[in-house]
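Before relying on records like the one below, remember that each one covers exactly one chain. Contacts with other chains, cofactors or solvent are not represented anywhere in the record.
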Amino acid sequence: MKKLLIVVDYQNDFVSGALGFPEAVQIEEGICRKIRQYQQQGQDVVYTMDTHGPDYAQTQEGRKLPVVHCVAGAEGWRLYGQTAALLKDCRRFDKPSFGSLELADWLKDQDYQQIELCGVVTNICVVSNAVLCKAALPEAEIIVDAACVASPDPKAQQAALETLKSVQIAVLPADAGEISPKA
């Protein structure tokens, strides 16, 4: 079975920087374990990078979330912790908004049977990209492991996981461990 792991926006600003929060730090080990597992199995791993320019404050997002973050090339834009080394040879999708249309367009021409997402922020970028994956490859099994995604708002986290389930995206329980279904 051809599988893909997508690491969503695991960047300094979302973990320890301008928009950082403790739960994001706590999922690093699980994300790194997943990356290693996929790579050892010869499966593909890609990642997204929230990427803004110096005009962030003038964008719609900047007006609604007036916290400058993930400015291309800045320290806060870079991958967090051990993920930087693990993802160095993987394909990157820079995205100026919550979901990556470039990733979805690329996926349409792939033949993955299973796509798993991990990273941050669950109720914003993870859910946006998971739905785009489902639209790009409607017959692929799309999975989100609740132990490897995080949001600074527990209610929004739970609501996002419920939303994912409602659009037929499998949500592994937070205590499910590292083994994906149909591994």
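The first helix runs from residue 12 to 15.
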